[in-house]
Amino acid sequence: MDLQTTIYIFVGLSFALYIGIAVWARAGSTSEFYAAGGSVHPITNGMATAADWMSAASFISMAGLIANMGYGGGLFLMGWTGGYVLLAMLLAPYLRKFGKFTVPQFIGDRFYSKSASTVAVICLLVASLTYIIGQMTGVGIAFSRFLGVSSDTGIYVGMAIVFAYAVFGGMKGITYTQVAQYIVLILAYTVPAVFISLQLTGNPIPQLGLGGGYVGTDMSLLAKLDSVVTDLGFGKYTTQLPGSSLNMFMYTMSLMIGTAGLPHVIMRFFTVPSVKDARSSAGWALIFIAILYTTAPAVAAMAKLNLHATVNTAVKAGGDLYAPEASLVNEQRPDWMKRWEKTGLLKWTDKNGDGRIQYYNDKTKNEAAKGKAEAAGWKGNELDVNADIIVMANPEIALLPNWVIALVAAGGLAAALSTAAGLLMAISSAVSHDLVKGVFNPNISEKNELLAGKVSMAVAIVVAGYLGLNPPGFAAGTVALAFGIAASSLFPAIMMGIFSKKMNKEGAMAGMLAGLFFTLFYVFAHKGIFFIKGTEYLGLIGGANSFFGITPEAIGAVGAMVNFAVAFLVDKVTKEPPEHIQAMVEAVRIPRGSKTVTGAH
Questions:
Q1: Segment 428-444, tens digit of pLDDT
Q2: What is the SS3 assignment for 220?
Q3: 3-212+236-276+397-588: what CATH class?
Q4: Sorting pLDDT into bands at 50, 70 and 90, what band is 534?
Q5: Where are the domains of the chain?
Q6: How crowded is the C-beta side of 331, counted as CA atoms within 13 Å?
Q7: Which of 3, 34, 203, 583 is within CB 3.0–4.6 Å of 101 for a Cys-Cys bond?
Q8: CA 13 to chain centre
Q9: Maximum Cα interatomic distance, the chain, rounded to a whole number of Å
């Protein structure tokens, strides 16, 4: 069976599975639509949370980022997993005990103000819509490569699939669909890794293979990779850092507290029966996430080595990497390169006219590597490889069987669609439950609220599709920006709401708005890009070292500090919360019992 047919079968079967589960688990009440009835088993919820969390960024992009950044790419592993520890210890149990459907509802009730709830909805919508751009873009990339359609068509198909199981099933349908999606994506990620680890190290466990020996040599895999990349002018894989140590720390912190503040992740802990189950499901989620996250560094290193070995025969055979005969003749390039060239994510430019592909760092400060390249007649790097293709192309680079390549296609789509569904659920509940019921029409019937939830979900899918079809100019950084927004706006408000009984509504609202606007201002001023695609202006802040070397992707941690500082300053000059609110905060922190999830205001 040819590759394309195999891909159609695997992707088609996975989509049929998702829709079948949605029909079986369709929501019949607001409790089922918003919180799956509050009756999901901790292990099931842990698996669904893992799928909700491991988005296109985790599945498609993370290993590519690590492959490009080397050791410094570990900040994504530390930030994202560390955020789950924060979530499990500091937020999930208390939010579950509070017994509400959504984060804005918690903030509105805790800070005794519909205005506070509305500000939280604004922060939630900005973070979720920013995040969803990356998911829809990931869907488009996966479809354009594997189904042979345009990325725009892929986004339309993705919208239809999410509509089928999210609108009708709500959180109940999404939960059980995400369990299936987790199984698909984790198999798609680990099976190729096992094959490739066996090929390169003889060890079937990728995590152990990463520290093992490179087949046919007396060198370790990482030592071999370090030798190759440094000889070609790249930084040493096992030690390079992204900018300053301060920036790496702030980047990690931004991802960590952004993880703990992402509303679509927090919502998952409202679906379990008790506080104990909330803690348990957070632990299970960490276990399920760890399977992929401990595999990612191995995938990154092995894919980078395989890519170099494909383009330069001397990587495997040994000898001079700059020898004329070592470079791959373009006409003899493998089929996988031709397929990815059609997507525009892999490009070759013959700068020296020799018909061969030279892949090296032409901007290196390594004088030895620069001298070798000039002596060999190389005129600059000729291969442009988008980091997003590393995982998706990995089994093709390693010449694995067609069914493995098809499995990766289904896994990439499962990762993007599962997170998109979770984000859409967060957006829908914020609009229908927190705005329509909480602010505009408190007496709305359950039937009409459920209808409002489904309509807002449908509208959110259309908006998400539009943003995927017409991404802003800064789309490449949207995932990191979404974490920064959540970190600087929602996380501090939730933390103060749980652990500071004296924090009042004025302080909380001022802090959220200050953190949000500070972060957005820094990003747009630094990058100099409007929301209108292709429209640019000169940034107000110039250069990468504008604010102590902190990049826009890492500024969310500073935004959180601004949020806390403003909140406490405003709190000191305004009236403290009523006594019954302070008593409620004290009661929520007592680790016994929990309210039934009713969503009642």
A1: 888 887 888 877 888 88
A2: strand
A3: mainly alpha
A4: very low
A5: 3-212+236-276+397-588
A6: 2
A7: 34
A8: 25
A9: 80
